[in-house]
Amino acid sequence: MVEGLDQASSERRSGRSGGGRSALITGATGGIGSAVARALALRGYRVGLLARREGPLRVLAEELGGFSLPCDVTDADAVVAAVARFEQETGGPLELVVSCAGAFSLQRVNELDPEELERQLSVNLLGSILLARAVLPGMRKAGRGILLQVGSVAGRKPLPGNAAYAASKYGLRGFHEVLRDELRGSGVRVTLLEPAATDTPLWDPLDPDADHALPNRSDMLRAEDVAEAVLFAAERPNGVQIPYLSIERVPGVAPSMRT
Predict the structure, then answer these.
(1) pLDDT digits (tens, 9 = 90+) for 67-91
(2) What is the CATH number of the domain that holds 99?
(3) What span, in angstroms and rounded, lies between the C-alpha atoms of 216 and 204?
(4) Are 158 and 212 in contact (CB under 8 A)?
(5) Which of 21, 22, 56, 210 is the residue whose CA sits 20 to 30 A from 44?
(6) Residue 1 domain-assigned (yes or no)
(7) What is the pTM of this model?
(8) Domain total of the chain
(9) In degrees, to the nearest 5, what angle opens at C-alpha 166 toward C-alphas 208 and 236?
(10) Alpha carbons 168 and 120: distance in angstroms, whole number
(11) Which residues are catalytic?
(12) E-only strand ranges, 52-158
């Protein structure tokens, strides 16, 4: 297990922090997803880890003492089955769901590969919608729960080369707004987190440090920064909702090290 999980176990017993609440994270083996999973486990949450890659998923689940849920988020039946399995494991409806699964590449509109367009729309938008569809019945019945979706600055700001990605993230923002209205008075809270460029393996094929048109990796957010924002949104008092949360790096300021 990672360092600090013994302390998290103590916090679960004392009722502090995550207090043994259940949290499901999609895209759990990716850069942001794994950072979120680790942060939540350290806070005492029982984490369900959902991703396609079974090997890395199993390793992460063993590391964090979590539940491995191999699943493709674009498969509606598989998502429903994974959610049901985790609810059975934890003995109740999910209390926190974080949608981190994502796909990303850069192509201008006239060069856009239809298959790449479909991939990004499927993972980034359809996957988030199918996840919400699967978890909301239990949350609504319980009258509580938080659904946090990881969007992007590209969901509110046009950026060259982001045609497919922006279409998926603008779409996610629209879906989130409808969801907010539909859930009013239900006790279920929703947050759309919109980080700026974040240094994860999704950037590896693009080598941004070698392209002056892209941000340097040293100027990007860290996945851990996004995970801290997830914790902040997830741990507001009951009755407090953060509909939107945008985060970005302060130019010229090195990221501080956590102690």
Answers:
(1) 999 999 999 999 999 999 999 999 9
(2) 3.40.50.720
(3) 12
(4) no
(5) 56
(6) no
(7) 0.87
(8) 1
(9) 95
(10) 7
(11) 165
(12) 67-70, 96-99, 146-150
